[in-house]
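User: Is it possible to get a 3D structure for a protein together with its bound compound? The compound here is cobalamin. I've pasted both below.
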Amino acid sequence: MIEVMKAFVKESPLNWSDVLQGPYYDEPIIQFASADDPLFEEYKSIIGPGHATPKELIERSFGSGTYNGGSVISIVLPIHESIRKANRQQKERASREWALLRTFGDEYFLKAARIHLTDYIINLGRLAAAPLDADWYGITSTDTGPISNWSERHVAYAAGLGTFSLNDGFISEKGIAIRLLSVVTDLQLPSDPRSAATHTGNCLLCSKGNCGVCITRCPVQAISKNGHDKIACMKFVYGQGSREWAAQSGGEATSGAGCGLCQTKVPCESRNPMRNAK
Ligand code: B12
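Assistant: Yes, that's possible. Here is the predicted structure of the complex:
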């Protein structure tokens, strides 16, 4: 499974930009959580009661009584250096490269990768479904910002792939400039351990109090020592100006250009800054 997905990322034509003459993503990190991990139930209070469990996903996809345990596969896709480098130069909005990543690397490639993995498992004669492609998947607006009913970052945390940061971003061993995807299956795969002391353990500011670079990188002051203002972030990241910039850059207006300034030119851009931190 790990080799199948590594080969897909390496060889898929969707992970290649003719405009940028390079891939969107480098080799993925792939880990597993048990579908019965109690953390998935806890997410109903941490995120909200609507956040689905792996059991609910399997039963909604394949019918009641079909759940018999299994695993959640979570994948970190590190963003290729040329795209990160281009965004490092930016001060006010996403680079053209980051905007292209948002349409083609995010919307198109992530979906293709989820389909590739679910098809592979189904062809083994087992159950598999990607929550983000389910007909019930959705994002709800709340007073503090949008919340989805399947959070790829929380799933990655459950699979031991890293932790959250001050700005809510997920910091993996390949850093914060990443994208995430997941698939639930009835295959029993070996669960990976969670080693971080807290859910923000990989963030230098949260753990050691000596960073905060993402606060100064944010072009709309949506990040402070108190955390991340999701509504201010959302208005900028997916607002009208972002849509226009996406289209001008050669992407699709409906995807927006994203931003990612808090994910580039920061100590956690492409590594876990707490590894070897004094
Ligand atoms: C809605 C959404 C947004 C919203 C709201 C973000 C948010 N913080 O929730 C807005 C529009 C602001 C947004 C912006 C961006 N997004 Co967005 N977004 C999503 C989406 C669709 C759902 C996120 C969600 O529902 N989160 C649930 C809420 C509850 O999470 P939260 O508030 O962050 O969680 C906090 C608490 O739960 C808390 N917590 C409290 N107690 C505890 C205890 C435990 C044990 C744990 C684990 C956690 C916990 O920890 C968290 C951090 O404080 C996901 C895709 C998906 N379905 O997962 C992409 C996703 C999160 N976005 C992503 C990206 C890349 C971006 C942008 C960089 C834009 C861009 N593409 O250029 C910015 C970055 C903003 C930022 N600093 O996080 C990536 C994340 C990459 C990463 N390294 O984290 C995702 C996963 C998409 C993907 N497939 O890769 N996004």
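The radius of gyration is 18 Å. The pocket of cobalamin is lined by residues 46-47, 102, 110, 132, 139, 145-148, 150-154, 157, 164, 167-170, 176, 178-180, 199, 228, 230, 233-234, 237-238, 258-260, 262-263 (CB under 6 Å).
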